[in-house]
Amino acid sequence: MKEKTDKKKKVKILTKEKVDLQQLFKVPSMGLAVAGQSVARTDARQKVMGTLKFGADYAQEKFLHGKILRSPHPHALIKSINTEKAKSMPGVMAVLTAEDVPGRNGFGAIIPDQPVICSDKVRFVGDGVALVAAETEQIAQQALERIEVEYEILPAIFDPRDAIKEDAPKIHDKGNLLSYNKLRKGDVSKGFAEADTILKRTYQVPFLDHAYLEPDMCMAIPQPDGTMLVEGPMQAPFTTRRNVNAVLGVPINKVRVRQVPMGGGFGGKEDSPIDLGARAAVLAWHTGKPVRLALEREEVMLQTCKRHPMIMEIRIGAKKDGTLLAFEGVIYDEQGAYASLGPIIPPAGGSHIHAMIMMAGPYEIPNVKVDAYLCYTNNPYGGAMRGFGAPQVHIAHEQLIDELAEELGMNPIDIRRKNGLKQGSATATGQVLDQSVGLIDTLDACAKAFNWDEKYRQTGYIDKTRSKRRGVGIGMGWYRTSIGINADGCGANVHVHEDGSVLLFSGITEMGQGSFTVLPQICAEELGVRLEDIRYVVPDTDIVPESGPTVGSRSTTLMGNAIILAARQVKESILAAASEMLDVPADRLVAKDRLIYDTENSVNSVTFKDAALKCMQTGRRLIGQGWWTPPKPSLDPETGQGNPYFVYTFSTHMAEVIVDVETGEVDITDFVAAFDIGRAINPRLIEGQIEGGVAMGLGYALMENVVVDQGYIQNKSLRNYLIPTSLDVPDTRSIILEVENKYGPYGAKGIGEMPNIPATPAVLNAIANACGGRVRSLPADPEGVFRAIREAGGPPDK
Amino acid sequence: MSYAFKDYQWSKDIAIKEYLLPRSLAEAFEILAKYNGKAQVIAGGTDVIPRLRHRDLEVEALVDITHLPDMSGIREEADKIVIGGLTTHRQIAASPLIREKAGILADGAGCLGSPQIRNIATVAGNLVSGHPAADTSTPLLALNASVTITSQEGERVIPLTEFFLDKGKTALDCRREILTQIRFAALKKNQGSSHLRLSKRRSLTVAVLIFAAVVEVDHTQNMIKAAQIALGPVAPIPLRATKTEAALRGAPINNETIERAAESVCRESNPIADPVWGSAEYKEEIIKVFTKRGLKKALKQAGTPVE
Amino acid sequence: MNHVELSFKLNGQDISIQILPNTLLVDLLRDRLGLTGTKTGCRQGECGVCTVLLDGDPVNSCLLPAVKVAGRSVTTIEGLATEDGRLDIIQERFISEGAVQCGFCTPGMIMNAKALLDREASPSETDIKKAISGVLCRCTGYRKIVQAVKSASEAKE
Prior knowledge:
The complex is a heterotrimer of chains A (about 800), B (about 300) and C (about 160).
Chain A: E1 2-5, E2 12-15, H1 44-49, E3 64-70, E4 76-82, H2 84-87, E5 92-96, E6 121-122, E7 128-134, H3 137-145, E8 148-153, H4 160-163, E9 177-185, H5 188-194, E10 197-205, E11 217-222, E12 228-232, H6 237-248, E13 255-259, H7 268-287, E14 291-294, H8 297-303, E15 310-318, E16 324-336, H9 351-358, E17 367-376, H10 390-408, H11 412-419, H12 439-450, H13 452-457, E18 460-461, E19 468-480, E20 490-496, E21 502-506, H14 515-527, E22 534-536, H15 555-582, E23 589-592, E24 595-598, E25 601-607, H16 608-617, E26 623-628, E27 648-660, E28 666-676, H17 683-702, E29 708-709, E30 712-713, E31 733-738, H18 759-771, H19 782-791
Parallel strand pairs in A: 2-31, 3-14, 12-13, 16-17, 21-22, 28-31
Antiparallel strand pairs in A: 1-2, 3-7, 4-6, 4-8, 5-7, 9-17, 10-15, 11-12, 11-14, 15-16, 18-19, 19-27, 20-21, 20-26, 23-24, 24-25, 27-28, 29-30
Helix pairs in contact in A: 6-7, 9-10, 10-18, 14-15, 15-16, 17-18
Chain B: H1 5-8, E1 18-20, H2 25-35, E2 39-42, H3 48-53, E3 61-64, E4 74-77, E5 80-84, H4 89-94, H5 96-101, H6 103-109, H7 115-120, H8 123-128, H9 137-142, E6 146-151, E7 154-159, E8 164-166, E9 169-170, E10 178-185, E11 191-198, E12 209-218, E13 223-232, E14 239-240, H10 242-248, H11 255-268, H12 280-301
Parallel strand pairs in B: 1-3, 2-3
Antiparallel strand pairs in B: 4-5, 5-10, 6-7, 6-10, 8-9, 11-12, 12-13, 13-14
Helix pairs in contact in B: 10-11, 11-12
Chain C: E1 4-10, E2 13-19, H1 25-32, E3 51-54, E4 57-60, E5 73-75, H2 89-96, H3 106-119, H4 125-131, H5 143-156
Parallel strand pairs in C: 1-5
Antiparallel strand pairs in C: 1-2, 3-4, 3-5
Helix pairs in contact in C: 2-5, 3-5
């Protein structure tokens, strides 16, 4: 690994020397001018001044206020609903029930199984039973109180294992098993028979909430031409549009959806805007007026999607030298009341199949068997949350590997080095990774920076009274770039103007991760202009090409490639014009920093804008269009074998903790996280993703838990749903490695989700190393750690 | 298990009709009398406003006492510390006098909520909330504080041990009365104190357990002369472990005394399980751990560490 | 409900406005006065994105009945940059250090940082972490925010 330092900001980057990129996305021989730099965000100034308007900041005068009447029961029939009293209130403009939905009374990111307004039954506390629009929010709230609903309570299900029993009450007509998926590689019984050591464990993880600081809201504005405009914070404008049009019963081209600046998303705003957008649109449809539907924080907790809880029963078999031979897993994946982003979109889309694919971890294991059950329950529903099924399974396999290492008397780093995926390895789906596999590089880089060997030797009590004990732990992981469906394409348009300024059209949204900066960087790099010459147009389905959702860590790579293709198309014209102006063949010309020059005589140049003007004057196209789809994904439904995702990002985290063995309190004293992300388009933004993602992962380990009792969420506010504060997060040190991806822009892979994945097991493993207590049912809050120490018979050598 | 309407349909506003700022105590009491139970006192508001929003509290008017004169300030009167009813948590936490002569109160006040909350939340308001996990109740109990309750009828002084009646209920009727002063004896040379708090994260969070102790020792005889041990939330009200305190009077300063005290405090407590904050069994264990650590720390501060 | 007259100083300017008594300061700022830089995230004083300075001290404006600020001085994020658009050093460093991601907590963070740096010339990293411990951030992990505030304090010297 060669080390370079980003000049603008002291971010250390390690680059693998040998690179063999596809011709299309290669780094130019003179290096990168705009991409690869830690430039400031394009929207930072407005954000620090407080002038950027988020959805709730929009002036409210012209809007009616919409509110949703929800079910107070987890499972019940609706016997009757009477809206007369509510309708007759002055200031109430609409009170709607199920029959008022103009089109399809169902929405959903994958399966539209969630009613816009429930007609015959409710399936979770939070299900929508009526909609109200009124002149003020107070009147709307009072109207809700006057709607009379009669329920007949039904027996409810709160455990996915109960959901699939013979006599379980049906939540949906088609039954409670939403999806059963299996993976079969090799022969696990043979593998286990050959194993010297077999370990069997069960790990359990709860509901989690995204807790983005901006509560959800949506605005629906009927347009003079009869179309419906829906705008608000959202990650998936196209998915939102194709739900709203169906709900309104109009063709897709009669709905326009637009992203408004987003105060965090993390996957939650992939489908909550579908919910609010469809409902606001129906209210706007009926009243003919703009409607604003905004949720209070407690309503966000109640109504929007969560991270899927899972029960993972896994078994691992290994030789005594640590070689993994067999892995067997059963996943009970709790979907909750509605399908959201859980079910499969063949071949490998949806969070459930993704979890199944990732269950065995980033390891070479010849025999793997996974059975994964996705079950409806009458609890809040699971959707996309940063990692999409991967965080849960990492908590299981990384802890199991550590428990196995302990059993075999091996250093946790050695067992990982021995079995971790390398170039040429086959994954659990039989996918042979032929490029961009930096997993072990991240393990080595992390270990060096963390000083693993020395710290591993120095675990033990740190005080005379023997109440505080230090330990270290590793979490190793991987995450796909892309979403494993055939429809994973990205479209981008680039318009160059005669003064050299550029418009970039893309449907990738900005939720803080930096897409509105990174994607223009790629565009500027490819065109040979400066970042400030590019304006990224707001993602508006009327204006930008189909781009897919901003999820799955796909944006930089997939959209980056589409942008390069679009920019190349325009550049053909620019170079052709310059070639004429300079009387030099186009293939000798290079565009950089607003100049186009002859590589054989660099003083011979024209400006980009003069070349653009020439194109304009001579009728040459200044519009570029790019469309990029990843290599076709595949996954056999019977065996789970195939190539579901075309490239993976790899990462290793190491944590040092001090556990108070008498109270179970955990203090994280050191944390290092290393990533192979192919190519860093903006190193400082990547660091930001790493530091924020690690904090989120630590929250999962130590404190986050949506407590649900009989379908009722017990902690609906930020007061009792705890996310890390500034005093809870260690000083995370980031290491960025570049093992280039031949399918990515200049070699880039995704980063959005990876950082929050290995952080959780790194901390859990460090806790176990420190105090002997293994927390297999999260969170590892003080009581959880205390109990784990008790279960282990007390802390080590007390 | 079920939800009331207000638990699943949330408002953004607070439903009051009047917000009044009297300039004198007399004026304040006049307004409260006029509203005859339909108005209540508000100081910092960090407790009252969320309760109003959730419709846990319903009043027509709020009577804001933050402009009343002569109600802030921390001063020493002979061997007593006197704190005005409008003193904020931040003022307490930053006060050199409190830090020196009643450090556990500075510690406790500094744990509440966040810097923004501590800037306006008053210690009096914290007591009046009647919450067993209130951050200043436990140290003030350990300091044997008393409070002055003022009403139109006059003043009465109550020891804090008689102030808390039930969860959320105190001897003060906030629709008629104002807590105007808190006082306690400053710690003496032969006294030591400690404050311990367990929480699920390091800021913006209610405590799972708070422990505060003040011990008075006899150096020559190496024994405990007196102890005040306070905890919360281990009962509907912030608790003084009076039985344990009685047993500690005259007890020798050694590990056996500490161990016995830990078991005794645990027996006097009655923590309940909470789905979010934790089980009763866990709290019982921490009560024992904190009693041991807290007593040892206080004894060390008093100059008589346990060998 | 009768309106009441509220007079206070806002970002250095005296203002007088008729409001309903149940108005919360955050809503007065955002809905009536168009200063939407101050955000609402929880309306319970638990997230800090509504932080404004009251006589120089950070407070959660979602918990403050507007009438409370009568005769006092309120500063919001909009009051930091100069009229000709020159940013406060804290704002500059938030940009250059990469301390901004989604931007929703940014005004709350900056206001708390401003109060700290107005009080403390050279705060330690721990001081900074404590000063911002009442504002939640889900995006950044706080590290670059702390670095930005440190950098701003060093620049001010």
